[in-house]
Structures are given as structure tokens and as C-alpha cells.
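Meet our chain:
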Amino acid sequence: MRSTWTDERLDDFKERVEQRFDKLEASVDRLDDRIDALQQTMINGFIAIMVAMFTGFVGLAGLILTQM
């Protein structure tokens, strides 16, 4: 391993580091989009379950009231 770095080698190193950070930033953006889509799916699922439960409770209440 070399103990000294030339300006050219430092410039090359800086360029490679910047390229890696650019790739990382692009990956983070895609991950944010996927998390947002998952959150929207979970909200829609929650709403669907609540509607189904409410419908069931109303149906059950109607059944109980008609049996009285």
C-alpha cells in the first residue's frame, strides 16, 4: 500500500466516491417511492377491513332487531 497520494489519485478517488453517492441517492429515491406505495396499499386495506366490519355489525344488529 502506498503511503502517499498524488493529486491525480485523489481526484480519481473523489470522482469514484461521488459516483457511489449518486447511485445511493437514486436508490433512496426509488425506496421512498416503494414505501409510499406500500403505505397507500396499507391505508386502502385498512379502509376495506373497516367497511367490511361495519357492514357486518350493521347486518348483525339488523338480524338481532328483527328477531325481537
